[in-house]
Amino acid sequence: MWEYTLPLPERKPNYTWGVVRSDCSAPCAGGRVSTKAICLEDQRVQVNGTLCNPQTRPVLGSHLCNTQPCPAYWTTGKWGACSRTCGGGQQTRHIRCMRKVTYQRDEVAPHSLCPVMAPAQVQPCNTHTCPPEWGTGSWSQCSKTCGRGVHKRSVFCRSTDPGARAVVVPDSMCKLHHKPKAQETCVLARCPKNDRLQWVTTAWGECSASCGTGLRRRELHCGERDFRGGYVEFPIRRCRNLPKPPAELQQPCSRGPCPQPPPQLQPQLQPPHHAPGRTPSAVVLGWYSSPWQQCSVSCGGGVQTRTTQCLRQGPPSAGCLAHQRPVSSRACNTHFCPAPAPAPAPAAPLPGPPR
């Protein structure tokens, strides 16, 4: 039996182009799928692309995929300011349901599309206990019905803790420099003019001298006459626009001559006046005064002085009654001073020498 081998004809590999697709670049809201050309040997093994015919290489490209919107989700804003600084307040924030419809665009979606458990929109804040604070009552009516007056209110320190036993607490528990005013000025419409207001003169006062010549004075007051003949006094400023009456506010008065000492006992003092039939030796004890000195001014109201002394038959004594002592000073030259003469006009300059 003969055996022999024959060489098989050499088989050439077949090189063809294959296409590989990538996964979608996004699970929703639109992704991209791209293709890539690869060279395959006998449709099985990837080989170098130079082995395939470049003219038959497929055209590469990409297209959209997973274009459906993404699931909705919640977004939250920043927390707002707390409604109270202490004692428990609230702060809120905004929430929105959103969903991604394209790679670059989100839009607001109905809340029903978002998860059932939404983020909190309200939360407590500043839950610590508040310190006591000042409280005030209502303002009272103005003390005047017109013009300027005052109105008042009560000011007290109160606890703001809901669990406190006493609402009003001692003032020392509140900040004193923050204490509200308990009294303020209130200004109403201007008061109507009072036609019954007038200047009223008071009764004359006592004479300034206990003997001899002195002065007595009276004052001008602002008032309103009543039906009984008296008057109600008002502040001077209420009559400031009324002309003052030309009434004398002071006048001389006299309480009789003052006793004078015997000239042989007290030469510097004036001798007293004696009744007929009496001699200086009959004067046992009394007050004696010297003549009045010159007035301190010639006009406008000045003062005169004199010496008063208690004498007993010439020598000084301490046995006189004090309330009978004559005055030692009095007003003088109370008339107004004449107006000063106007200053003379300046003389014209003398002409200079001719040039």
What are the SSEs and their pairings?
Elements: E1 15-21, E2 31-41, E3 45-47, E4 62-65, E5 73-76, E6 89-92, E7 95-102, E8 105-108, E9 122-125, E10 133-136, E11 148-152, E12 155-158, E13 168-169, E14 183-187, E15 197-201, E16 213-217, E17 220-225, E18 231-234, E19 250-254, E20 285-289, E21 302-305, E22 308-312, E23 329-332
Antiparallel strand pairs: 1-2, 2-3, 2-4, 5-7, 6-9, 7-8, 10-12, 11-14, 12-13, 15-17, 16-19, 17-18, 20-22, 21-23
GO biological process, one term: proteolysis
Biased composition (Pro residues): 258-274
Subcellular location: Secreted
Give a short overview:
The chain has 355 residues and is mostly beta strands.
Folded structure, characterized:
InterPro entries: ADAMTS_ADAMTS-like, TSP1_rpt, TSP1_rpt_sf. GO terms for molecular function: metalloendopeptidase activity. It is rod-shaped, with a radius of gyration of 60 Å. Strand 17 and strand 18 form a beta hairpin. It is an all-beta fold and 355 residues long. The chain has strands spanning 15-21, 31-41, 45-47, 62-65, 73-76, 89-92, 95-102, 105-108, 122-125, 133-136, 148-152, 155-158, 168-169, 183-187, 197-201, 213-217, 220-225, 231-234, 250-254, 285-289, 302-305, 308-312, 329-332. Helices cover 0% and strands 32% of the residues. The protein folds into 5 domains: 15-65, no CATH class; 73-125, no CATH class; 134-187, no CATH class; 197-254, no CATH class; 257-274 and 282-335, TSP-1 type 1 repeat (Single Sheet), CATH 2.20.100.
